[in-house]
Amino acid sequence: MPTPRIRPSGRGRTDGPALSAAAILDAALEVAEREGPGALTVRRLGLELGVDPTAFYRHFRDKDELVLALGDRIIAMTLEKIEPVDDWRATLRSIAGAAYAMNRRYPAIASVTFARVTGGVAEREIVEMLLSTIARAGLPPAETVLYYRAIADATLSLTGQAAAFENLEPSLRAKDEAAWSQIYGALPEADYPAIRAHARELAEVRETQVFDAVITAVIDAIDARAAAYRAGGDEHD
Amino acid sequence: MPTPRIRPSGRGRTDGPALSAAAILDAALEVAEREGPGALTVRRLGLELGVDPTAFYRHFRDKDELVLALGDRIIAMTLEKIEPVDDWRATLRSIAGAAYAMNRRYPAIASVTFARVTGGVAEREIVEMLLSTIARAGLPPAETVLYYRAIADATLSLTGQAAAFENLEPSLRAKDEAAWSQIYGALPEADYPAIRAHARELAEVRETQVFDAVITAVIDAIDARAAAYRAGGDEHD
DNA sequence: ACCTGAACACCGTTCAAGT
DNA sequence: ACCTGAACACCGTTCAAGT
Predict the structure, then answer these.
(1) Chain A contacts of B62, Cβ < 8 Å?
(2) B43 assigned to some structural domain
(3) Is the separation of the CB atoms in A37 and A63 below 8 Å?
(4) Burial profile A87-114: b = 16 or more Cβ within 10 angstroms, e = fewer
């Protein structure tokens, strides 16, 4: 059970501010991972840090600013996990995989940042890395950007979807999870032949397999376009 | 300006219940499209229908039940727009495109249902349609299901992402939108050469192009796998 | 049988007041 | 300069009371 950090009562003004943006970020990241999105409230953060809830507003303009800063922290942690290699395909896989893993570790944050631009330094770095990696495939600028967005948006949106699901109340999540066997496994074969023919497989696919399939499809698409350009730049499929 | 429907004051008991689940769904769909996610509250629905807010609970167990019913309504409207054709690729495109368009029309609902299983009749029908369409490509059951999920999750998650973005307060949306030209267009070329080399293209890509690129990539992946199986069922790349 | 309205336990945020 | 605490305008939901 977490005890709120009580600062020493003898603290004088020489100790500096009781609170800092960095301390709030640390607490927010920890409480979000530990207790989910319901705990990521301004009031709860105050409790966690042993200060009045509204002290928060001296360090962030509003909750959105906090959320974007947290999003950039997640990207920063993602960058630490990436292993750039010679092969651009393997590098793309590493970036997408690292982002997927980190966002799933912090679903409470991922579910609110997956449709946002953080504007932070980590975001700039990962965008630069993705763009320069895709550029190595040899596509013209417009297509490099199109497939950068395809990889980035597919990664962010699929992890956002997984995160939103994980953030559900346990009872709702269990209900949705059971639907594939409960509802879809019991449908009349006359009306739903394809569903019945695939009932077992439907209940068994894993979210990560789906993610891999989509990312692989996009990487293969880049490969195919690059091959077409190598065969002759005027071949627009 | 919408006037709340005031029922005639002379209404007697022969008129039946003042409220019905269908009337609530109609009002919710309309208010969600017209005014966005901030308006999709139990209190607001009561106002819109001219009844006490809590009358809602006589027709739905909780707000989640309403949200799932709305999600199924969107799927039902999507089904009406789909044109099944001979070519399974074109049919998949039609389904994905119709779902994308309908979810973007109701971002307030899409942003909360994109990670859910509605369990409704429309959902079953669209799952059956997708599965039977992909099965026509000639993949074994496990891969049919894998690519069904790839198409379905890519469609839902990308529209969920777009919906979440559209649901932002106008000021936040404008800030995020401007980031590509404001922040990413002004980064030092020494540190961010790839971003600077693609600045214009980054500001110009459209969300629908990205969606098309991802869906096309997945359909091409199905095609490639099907071709491999036609060439000899034992070829697992 | 159905609707009402007070109430509960929450949110994010503002602002005057304290030290 | 920084933190506090009352207050405002909201949420979803419960429950006893009305008709």
Answers:
(1) none
(2) yes
(3) no
(4) ebbebbbbbbbbbbebbbebbbbbbbbb
The residue range of the domain holding B40 is: 1-60
A–B CB contacts, 8 A cutoff, strictly below: 176
What total of structural domains would you count in chain A? Answer: 1
Q: Which of A221, A201, A224 is nearest to A213 (CA)?
A: A221
- Residue-wise pLDDT for A74-101, tens only, equals 999 999 999 889 999 999 999 999 999 9
Tokens, residue A174? 């269990």
Query: How far B147 CA sits from the closest chain A CA (Å)?
Result: 7
Q: Other C-beta atoms within 10 Å of B84: how many?
A: 13
Angle between helices B21-35 and B42-49 (to 10 degrees): 110
For B49, the token pair is: 């229908």
The tokens of A38 are what? 């319901």
Asked whether residue B54's C-beta has any atom of DNA/RNA strand D within 7 A, the reply is: yes
CATH assignment of the domain containing A3:
1.10.10
Rounded distance in angstroms from the CA atom of residue A233 to the C1' atom of nucleotide D14: 68
* A185 contacts in chain B (CB < 8 Å): none
- Give the residue among B112, B99, B206, B164 at the shortest CA–CA distance from A156: B164
Q: Is the pTM of this model over 0.85?
A: yes
Say how far apart CA A30 and CA A34 lie, in whole Å.
6
Residue A200 domain-assigned (yes or no): no
Confidence of residue B180 (pLDDT cuts 50, 70, 90): confident
Tokens 């607490």 correspond to A27
The answer to whether position A191 is within a domain reads: no
Place of tokens 């044109």: B83
Residue with tokens 């004088």: A12
Residues 6+ apart with CB under 8 A from A7: A15, A18, A50
Q: Which residue is nearest to nucleotide C11 (CA to C1')?
A: A41
Is B185 among the domain residues? no
Q: Band of the pLDDT at A163, cuts 50, 70, 90?
A: very high
Q: Could you say which residues from 70 to 129 on chain A have a Cβ atom under 8 Å away from some Cβ of chain B?
A: 114-117, 119, 124, 127-128
Contact A96, A215 (CB under 8 A): yes
- pLDDT, tens digit, for every residue of B120-141? 999 999 999 999 999 999 999 9
Residue whose C-alpha is closest to residue B72's, from B14, B28, B19, B131: B28
